[in-house]
Amino acid sequence: GEEPDSSKEETSSMSDSSSEEEGDNVMEEVEIEEKAAPAVKEEQEAETKEVEVKEVEKTKEEKTVALKKKDCQPAVFIPVDRLPEIQEARLKLPVLAEEQVIMEAVKENDCVVLCGETGSGKTTQVPQFLYEAGYASAGGIIGVTEPRRVAAVSMSHRVANEMNLSTGVVSYQIRYEGNVTKDTKIKFMTDGVLLKEVQKDFLLHKYSVIIIDEAHERSVYTDILIGLLSRIVALRNKKGLPMKLLIMSATLRVEDFTENKRLFCTPPPVIKVEARQFPVTVHFNKHTPLEDYTAEAFRKTCKIHRMLPPGGILVFLTGQAEVHSVCRRLRKAFPYRPNNMEHTETEDTSEELKKIKKQKQKKSVSLPRIDLDNYSALPVDDRDEDRQAGIDDDDDDECSDLDLGDQPEDTEEKADPSIPLYVLPLYSLLAPEQQAKVFRPPPPGARLCVVATNVAETSLTIPGIKYVVDCGRVKKRFYDRVTGVSTFKVTWTSQASANQRAGRAGRTEAGHCYRLYSSAVFSDFSQFSEAEITRRPVDDLVLQMKDLNIQKVVNFPFPTPPCSEALVSAEQLLISLGALEEPPRQGRMVDMKRASLSCPITPLGRAMAAFPVAPRYAKMLALGRQQGCMPYIITIVAAMTVREIFEELDRPASNEEESSKLAGRKARFSQMRRLWAGQGQSLLLGDLMVMLGAVGACEFVGCTPKFCEENGLRYKAMLEIRRLRGQLTNAVNAVCSDAGVCVDSKMPPPTESQVACLRQIVLAGLGDHLARRVQAEELLDSKWRNGYKTPLLDEPVFIHPSSALHKELPEFVVYQEIFETTKMYMRGMCAVQPDWIPKLLPQYCHFSGPEQNPASWYCTLSGNVKCQQKSTFFRVGWKLPAIEMD
Ligand code: CDP
Ligand code: MG
Fold this sequence. Notes:
Shape: globular
Structural class: alpha/beta
Bound molecules: cytidine-5'-diphosphate, magnesium ion
Radius of gyration: 30 Å
Largest sheet: 8 strands, mixed
Number of strands: 26
Strand order of the largest sheet: 4-3-5-2-6-7-1-8
Number of helices: 31
């Protein structure tokens, strides 16, 4: 019952702009092809295709007529019945003064940029302006994108509340959750959600306006959406289906959007909202605490509370665990006295929590009041969404829920207990009802203190803040080039962010900002945070864009384009993985670089695009549905993406006793590894079999810290693997509803034939990491003894003594990565049977004789070392959902 796809004709007209010199067009071509269903293509499909296309065209015409009749252009003023106190509060917001100007600009232009200081009312008010002007009443709805889930949820509730409308009308949609109904008129969503919708309906027929909020954050998906929408809006208007685009930013730095000729031929108008900002005095620390900035934040907050006049305190830290730890210490230092607290937290009084409360009171008598905030049911950490939608700013794998009392005693800060401090945490994974508390006034007589991550920097404005404590750091996502996995690291923030944070103190009156670092450090900060797209690998992005039928990714109007080499090499990797069609070979020589610039996606590529992992691993998942291999492939991919699952035992010992202890552990662990590696086929799966065996054994006993400790496994890594396995299982089941992969963490060891299949799947995914042992007759130099040749390096690489394949020395192996200690070693290895190579990696093979029946072949990958083999293998194309392997 899917709507017929109609993107072909619509999008082909995107390319009819002036084409000047090739590769230098002002309005670049963005070719988008008719989307092929990611299913097995039948032979007969070619014949039925023509008929189908006509069918599609007809329905599209009907759709167009229907939309025209409704007409998206606003006609009437839609009254909103607001409560008087709400109306009064609204009138104080700076953006209200600009309503006329904004609405005029929106009427006159397809795209408008709106800049306004955080808290000026952009997010909550602009959707209301558009609603009142009738933009949601003529056949289309108002869509608002946020880079963070917390903002999407909280803003939808706030706006529903302000407009006196139900959440069925002002709704939200985040990856796995939402309350959108058929009556929805204003829809808040994460940028990732809208991107997925573009995949289904390129022209976004159901929207009359799209607001891209928080554009200054420059999240990858926001950037891509702006690029796409610049075209979508132009196309919609050309087709007489008007649509508006509003880009909202908290900073004035919008030239990447407005001055970018690739994006908009005529620069969109920029409207500035002047916010009343009271002066904020900035205080720098003399010294910069390098490690323990949370302790410093705690001390500073205590001082402010004891010594300075009333006014809310906002503390900026980097992640959930830090926030909780500082909240705990503050509550300990400034206990509540319950009869002082008129605010009772009604939402927390469930039986369950009462029980915990009792238990905890028993356990730690010294605790004056139980901080129920720490028990808030944290939503499941679905980091895959974060990876897809690029939202999560403060993810933290440390959930500090129940442990208490491990904090150092805060003797020096015994404060005057007569002034209550109302301490609230705020971070993006906090339950919505907990988040909502920061917007309510604190209990009478108490001072509000919000300990937050950088969600409070621009997405959420907390009323009544007079003091800001800024640790100067931010948790940023870094990408591992090998695994494509993102990890979060704490780094210095930018000057622009630090100033945003300071600004939070001057919204209602003059305020103070205490920076926990010196002015010298501040002047070393980068001026602005750079666009995320320039500091992450792009192979997964290119795949996502191809899945959107964007052929020439290099020509895509990125607000800040990634470097073209990165795009070309991403495209080449995707071609070699079979995710994109190979460029046609003209004669013998192909200019791969030129030819690979506009390769369309293959059905395999579409299947891969559905998985939230780097393309190499996505390919393994896409091929995992054979012989019941999926649970194993999921585990292997999870284990490969979690780094360092084994305890490091090669560290130098400080004394003899430790050294002998280490040696003992090492002996035991290598014995375990041998056990997990198994025999026969299993052994040939190599290090990956060891990972599989470790996870299998660990889950068999229920993944206990004790088991991990005894067997040299890192407990945290094992928990992470478990989490990832759950997520990937869900993703696989969502992609192929009939896959029916079980979430059971326990699994029996794979059979011999399953292991053979697993080895081939791994080869198919890691194909460009193929290495071949240098044969005795090829030995040029003694340094090559037992060495392997790889396509990337001129030097030999070796099998590490700790590898399961150390004694095997197989002729061909694939590896996950190369690391260097005394020599260069391969990590994460698996042995490969030579005759699989022409079948699974035909792109890397040179065939003599007709391709369909090659007489012999050699692999061009393993350093051009010829390895002639009589072969009867054909070049096989990928067939999905399942291809048959040996
Ligand atoms: O988007 P922008 O930063 O320009 O401002 P906003 O998020 O629309 O916030 C406007 C005002 O509404 C601020 O003063 C917030 O404190 C307030 N607000 C609120 O009281 N409760 C919410 N749930 C959301 C916003
Ligand atoms: Mg906002």
